[in-house]
Task: inverse folding
């Protein structure tokens, strides 16, 4: 490697917020000469952008660090330098402990302070940054984002005040914070100028966006403004909380063409007893009512959800209520997990933990039901003509891949020149994870 060019490898764990943060870290370091590479062995700087949502997350990071220590030693024997940074929620939760247990780590940066990485690398700041400097973070993020895909994530909201009894996010990402509307609109405009056709607005509680704003805007109002940007064809948002699903946002689903017919609205359990124990702040009836209202505005909307089975105290009857809720709602897709204890959360300290074997059995039953619903939803598309935004090449020669309005992956044989464009596809086949189709030759390609 010559001159001031350096190589950075970022390993991203967990959620879309982390994918966005990794992209931003790469953007922040690009002006310092860092180009991204695909493997740690070739990198001058390795960043582990960690997630704390699963059990033993910290242990997995330490085992990765053990492998990186060997790499770093091998590079040192060749007279080369490799620096290692741990970012994300494990960095936030463990703080200085990481460098004590793994001295191989050069820098520790929390999810709200990674904007300080350039200063840290230049030796202008200490090796640890884990405070909740959200305003400073968004101010310093690279304004010129590299848009190499027609789709982009834009973080609009960070943090959470809900304190669900199973979750560490309020402790690792801090209180709810909304980015100013003008900053978001400018970022989206810049992305569209670089060829982006679809943005996904991100937040831990994205529909709490604007909760503290002086102009009274909520997420629905923000979406209405974004929808006026020429050439922005599609808008999505994730992840929402039922408590923040207001009328304006629900109405937006019936009124804004660019707002895609897809709603990820976690419920976690179908039992009111468990929802209360989880401190979710809503009942199953409230959730069902929200879904009914959204479907009244947008009948074809695809509903996606999150479920946790085996929260402490969950009985067979509680679990049956979850299965019934899934049957009643009908999910197009869902994420489901076994409850795992997160240190410091109320659920972790409870004595009525559900045995692992019971959690595993329940998860299997729930996933079988959810998988069947997903396949059924995908099958229902066969014979339809749907607009697909193509964003990459497929796995086979001459194949391209894109997303339907319902966020399904769609594969067709077609020219790479369609990547970045929306074209109509006749859906001819479906599996649980993707659809296949044929380009509608008659159809108008919209861009
Ligand atoms: S709403 Fe609950 S699950 Fe979601 S981030 Fe906040 S505390 Fe965690």
Result:
């Amino acid at each position: 490697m010559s001159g001031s060019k350096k190589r950075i490898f970022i390993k991203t764990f967990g959620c879309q917020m982390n994918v966005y943060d990794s992209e931003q870290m790469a953007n922040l370091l690009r002006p310092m000469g860092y180009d991204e590479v695909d493997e740690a062995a070739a990198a001058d700087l390795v960043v582990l952008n960690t997630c704390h949502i699963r059990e033993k997350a910290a242990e997995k990071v330490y085992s990765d660090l053990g492998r990186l220590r060997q790499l770093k030693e091998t590079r040192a024997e060749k007279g080369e330098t490799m620096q290692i940074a741990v970012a994300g929620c494990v960095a936030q939760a463990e703080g200085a402990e990481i460098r004590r247990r793994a001295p191989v780590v050069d820098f520790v940066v929390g999810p709200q302070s990674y904007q300080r990485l350039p200063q840290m690398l230049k030796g202008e700041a200490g090796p640890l940054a884990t405070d909740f400097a959200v305003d400073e973070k968004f101010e310093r993020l690279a304004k010129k984002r590299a848009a190499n895909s027609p789709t982009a994530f834009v973080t609009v909201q960070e943090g959470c005040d809900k304190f669900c009894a199973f979750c560490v996010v309020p402790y690792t990402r801090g209180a709810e914070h909304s980015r100013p509307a003008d900053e978001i609109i400018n970022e989206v405009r810049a992305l569209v100028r670089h060829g982006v056709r679809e943005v996904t607005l991100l937040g831990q509680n994205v529909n709490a966006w604007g909760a503290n704003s002086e102009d009274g805007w909520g997420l629905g109002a923000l979406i209405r403004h974004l929808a006026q940007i020429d050439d922005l064809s599609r808008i999505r948002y994730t992840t929402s909380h039922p408590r923040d699903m207001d009328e304006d946002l629900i109405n937006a689903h019936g009124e804004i063409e660019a707002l895609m017919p897809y709603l990820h609205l976690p419920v976690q359990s179908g039992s009111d007893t468990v929802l209360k124990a989880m401190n979710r702040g809503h009942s199953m009836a409230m959730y069902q009512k929200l879904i009914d209202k959204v479907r009244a505005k947008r009948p074809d909307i695809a509903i996606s959800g999150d479920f946790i089975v085996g929260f402490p105290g969950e009985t067979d009857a509680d679990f049956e209520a979850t299965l019934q809720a899934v049957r009643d709602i009908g999910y197009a897709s869902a994420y489901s997990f076994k409850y795992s204890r997160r240190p410091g959360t109320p659920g972790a300290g409870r004595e009525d933990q559900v045995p692992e074997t019971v959690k595993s059995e329940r998860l299997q039953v729930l996933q079988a039901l959810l998988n069947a619903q997903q396949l059924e939803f995908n099958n229902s598309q066969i014979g339809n003509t749907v607009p697909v935004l193509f964003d990459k090449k497929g796995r086979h020669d001459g194949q391209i891949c894109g997303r339907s309005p319902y966020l399904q992956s769609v594969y067709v044989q077609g020219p790479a020149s369609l990547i970045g464009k929306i074209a109509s596809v006749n859906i001819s086949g479906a599996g649980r994870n993707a659809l296949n189709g044929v380009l509608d030759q008659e159809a108008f390609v919209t861009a």
User: Anything to note?
Assistant: The radius of gyration is 23 Å.
